[in-house]
Amino acid sequence: MRVRSSRWLAVVIGLAVLLSAAVEARCREPSAETVAVSETYNNAPFEYRIRPLAERAEFRIFRITYPSPVVTPVEQNNTIPADYYLPKNLLPGVKYPAVICLHILDGNEPLTDLVCSVLASRGIPAISFKLPYYGPRGLPGKGPNALAEDPKLFLGAIKQSGEDVRRTVDLLASRPEINPKRIGITGISLGGIVAASAAGAEPRLHRAGLLLVGGDLPRIIHHARETRTLSKMIRQLPPADRAEVEKMIALVDPLHFAPALRDRARDGRVLMLNAAEDEVVPRECTEKLAEALGIADRVVWLEGLGHYTAMAELPRALRMTAEFFARDLPEAAREANSLAAEAASPRSTPLQRMVSLLQQAVAMLATEPAPGRCHYADVEVSVTLPGKRPIEVHTRLVRGENETFSLRCKISDLGELAMGQCSFPWLVAGGKKVLAGTKNPVAGSRPLGNVDPRQLVGLRTLAGAVGGFALAPHALQQWINVEDVPHKAASGGRAIRITAAEQTRAPGEILIGFRDDGRTPETASFAVAGVVGTIKFRGWQANTPALDALFTPPADMPREEVEQTDLHRVFSAAANFALDRLDDRRWSGDRGKSDEIAVVARDPAGHGLLCRSQGKMILMVSGTPRQMGAAQGTLVRDTARRMIDRVVYAVGGADTVHSGRWFFDRMAEIRRRTEPHIPPRFIEECDALADAVGISRRDALYGNLFPERFHCSGVALRGKATVGGRVLHARVLDYMCDIDLQRAALVQVFMPEQRNAWMSLGYAGFVGTVTAMNEKGLAIGEIGGRGEGLWDGVPMSLLLRDVMERADNVKEALDIIRRSPRTCEYHYVLSDRSGKLLALHCTPEKATVLEPGQQHPRLPLVPEDVVLVSGDSRAKTLSRRIQENYGRIDVPKLIEIIKRPVAMRSNLHNAIFAPETLEMWFADAGRHTPACDEPYAKVNLRELIEFYAAHGSDP
Predict the structure, then answer these.
(1) Rounded Cα distance, 538 and 529, in Å
(2) Taking the mean position of all CA atoms in its chain, how far away is CA 534?
(3) Among the listed residues 302, 325, 321, the one whose alpha carbon sits nearest the alpha carbon of residue 313
(4) How far apart, in whole angstroms, are the C-alpha atoms of residue 544 and residue 558?
(5) pLDDT at residue 11 above 50?
(6) Alpha-carbon distance 896 to 902, whole Å?
(7) Is the Cβ–Cβ distance between 12 and 466 less than 8 Å?
(8) Which of 30, 343, 473, 831 could form a disulfide with 716 if both were Cys (CB 3.0 to 4.6 A apart)?
């Protein structure tokens, strides 16, 4: 029951790098006044203290503190802190309506501040206060989290919130500028639920604006992810206590108060605005409340949006809310507001110009231009990070109607990218030729037809957030200062300077120079947190006339026909990747850190479990190849689809741009040359996975045949090298963290019929392995080499799977590898529970074996009882660290040994196997950190197999 503070909103509020570090700065005026309120709802007079807090262009903000009518054992909870938004230029002798604004579940201040600012800008005084146990009212170290842990405390807080609303009505009614008969209330999510109940309980509340709300609190509490802790606590109560809590819930439920609010609702004085696909407040809960209020046919539904993505309609919601409460403005005040609006010059202030520029930028990404028009942006950027060389970027983006576009981008040291959609899709490959998607065109195929709808809603959310602040730009003044300054580099001679409101904590500035029209940007410079740079706007126009030539590929390059649908998928994958990188929400979800294994989902056919432990996902499948493939596809469908889309289409497109060769031609060749050597059971499993995921069998196979270009390390130790002579085997995988493969990371446990069970540190949709150990205590890790193009053999990842399923020890594994036709060049480190260790160097023609302690010209010193494979300086560091800790190496020391620079910045995952006990310690890369810097989890293969036997029965 909260609107999540996503990175989209942070981008808007943060204004790139500068504003993400900005903090609240308020006007500090020491004077405070004490005011008595004698007429109250409970006949208990009280006093409030009021002092100036901040100054805005159209209103002032005052801090008010007053006693809660409910006295609790938590002393600080008994004082209500509120912010009062008082419009300037109120007409003397005129009484104005007022609105109480309640915050959302996480206490988000910017959103509440924005609602109050929009109302105050319309001439409507507004007040917001902290609900019980929020902010300064909270328990030390816990704040509102305490409410989730104690159902009775939560319900007491809801009841107290209603009493606090009534006391706030008393306060407003006593103010000389307020019409006591025209006081309203509004709230979003939790605030809206409290507002609905309070409006029913307090007849003096003339209007109620309810956003993202519903009735039937038990249903909401037990449904919403945000209240799952509270739900769990309620369910675990003894029967008598649970019955008491459920009775208390019924007494604070909006449905309980709906009859008292029904007449006002029928009179048009209740506004309900809800998300049609709300995942927090179920639609049936909204419909129950609307029905109880008698306005089921008047609910405003935000179609296609959920609880969090409703931010996409923030401007509309704010306008509707302001217009709803503005109906109570006296006629004289409406006329005064109208005259003031006419006198104000649009975008006249520096803050308005800044927000206008943000709107233009977002519109170019989120809004399609009018017919015959296009959005055009041509910018040159130079950025220097601390201690780094400058990065030069020149980008030109043209966006037309019906998804036509052209993108050309040149990045220093990385090369050029050029792609677009005119009457056909096109992509420049390696700067040498144009790949034209004119082969086998499919009706209805669109260049962005496979973009994740959630990402498109994310763009709408960004546009909505910007649009919301455009309605009340002065709401940003609590974080930033924006001022006009002269600027020689701008042809208009003027610029705006943007700084943090509190420079001591966020030093730096952004300077944006404008052309003569005062609206079109011309130059920008920034110096923030050690990052400096400049931007030159060579072209910047929204909805400018479009010319066909803007969208066509270079005419001086040869053309090659490729499949239209494949090229469209490449475009969609690139857009998904770009949008994904802007949004960190999926990286911050709470997966729980319990060591217990919890079942998340079951394969309906009875051949798999998806589990969670220590914040990691564990997939277990069993049966025939077809059964295991179908189980994996069913249990990790969305993740597997995203992973294969990212690997096949996004990376495939990047590979095409870099190499100059169409990726799908290369993959078709790999398939042709490897398929005769692949054991049929693996093809069968991959096909079943594809069918369950809902992708083509070709794409699933390509995702598994994708040539691995690893630059990794591996080491196995025993005897004299380790504590107690224990066999330890470390594997470091350095590979493409920047495409976010780690988001698809899984511990995979395969239990094939009549073959060894084994586990892989793998990825959703991947049926092969590069890091694995089987139930017989055989472990293996792979290190990539050269030889790309030597594909007449078993693909490496499937060869290693074959080893896991058929070999019981190092000797048998070596025999399988030697007898199998091999591809490319690979190195392997193998170990088993008996203490046998080997390092292998394999090419299609030869397999070279290195025994423990055996030296090699391409390796540094290899100590006794050790095998290692690594490259360049990383190998030297690995050898040195082993020697320094020789004889004292255990799991914690080995974790330290394989940290950077043994691991690279691209360190995707690390694993340490103990073959004798079947334990694996492992870490996956984080959002911006290599695996070696992330916490390790631990699993035991034997325990996982036993867990599956106990919990993975057929339906």
Answers:
(1) 27
(2) 28
(3) 302
(4) 31
(5) no
(6) 10
(7) yes
(8) 831
41 burial level (CB within 10 Å; 0-12, 13-18, 19+): middle
Express each pLDDT in 401-438 by its tens digit.
999 999 999 998 778 999 999 999 999 999 889 999 99
857 CB-near residues (< 8 Å, 6+ apart): none
Residue 184's identity, in one-letter code, is G
Cβ–Cβ < 8 Å for 920, 909: no
Structure tokens at 526: 């920034």
The 10s digit of each residue's pLDDT in 821-858 is: 999 999 999 999 999 999 999 999 999 999 999 999 99
Query: How far apart, in whole angstroms, are the C-alpha atoms of residue 800 and residue 795?
Result: 9
Give the contacts of 203 (CB within 8 A, at least 6 positions apart): 260
Checking if the pLDDT of 573 tops 60, the result is yes
CA distance 771 to 803: 12
Q: Give the DSSP per-residue string, 601-650.
A: EE-TTSSEEEEEETTEEEEEEEESHHHHHHHHHHHTHHHHHHHHIIIIII
Model confidence band, residue 490 (pLDDT cutoffs 50, 70, 90) = low
Single pTM value for the model: 0.74
Please enumerate in sequence order all residues whose Cβ is within 8 A of that of 929, keeping only pairs 6 or more positions apart, or say none.
none
CB within 8 Å of 417: residues ≥ 6 apart: 407, 408, 409, 410, 411, 428, 657
**pLDDT at residue 344, rounded to an integer:** 47
Q: CA–CA separation, 501 vs 505, rounded Å?
A: 9
Specify whether the backbone of 372 is left (phi greater than 0), alpha (psi in -120 to 50) or beta: left
Q: Specify the 3-state DSSP secondary structure of 872.
A: helix
Does the pLDDT of residue 265 top 70, yes or no? yes
DSSP per-residue string spanning 515-541: -TTSSSEEEEEEEETTEEEEEEEEEEE
> Own/partner pairs for 71-76, CB < 8 Å, 24+ apart?
72/132, 72/156, 72/160, 74/133, 74/137, 74/139, 76/136, 76/137, 76/138
**Nearest partner of 455 among 568, 572, 535, 348, judged by Cα:** 572
In this structure, what are the phi and psi dihedrals at residue 261, rounded to the nearest 5 degrees? -100, -5
- Exposure string of 264-288, with b = 16+ CB inside 10 Å and e = fewer, is bbeeebbbbbbbebbebbbbebbbb
Which residue from 717, 653, 685 is spatially nearest to 868, judged by alpha carbons?
Answer: 717
Least confident of 246-250, 585-589, 593-597, 939-943: 585-589
Residue 3's nearest CA partner among 106, 100, 102 is 106
Q: Give the tokens for residue 128.
A: 């917001």
Identify the pLDDT of residue 593: 65
Question: What is the DSSP code string of 806-832?
Answer: H-SSHHHHHHHHHHS-B-S-EEEEEEE
Q: How far apart are the first and last CA of the chain?
A: 35
Average pLDDT, the chain: 89
Rounded Cα–Cα distance for residues 694 and 579 (Å): 23
Q: Which amino acid does the sequence have at 408? A: R
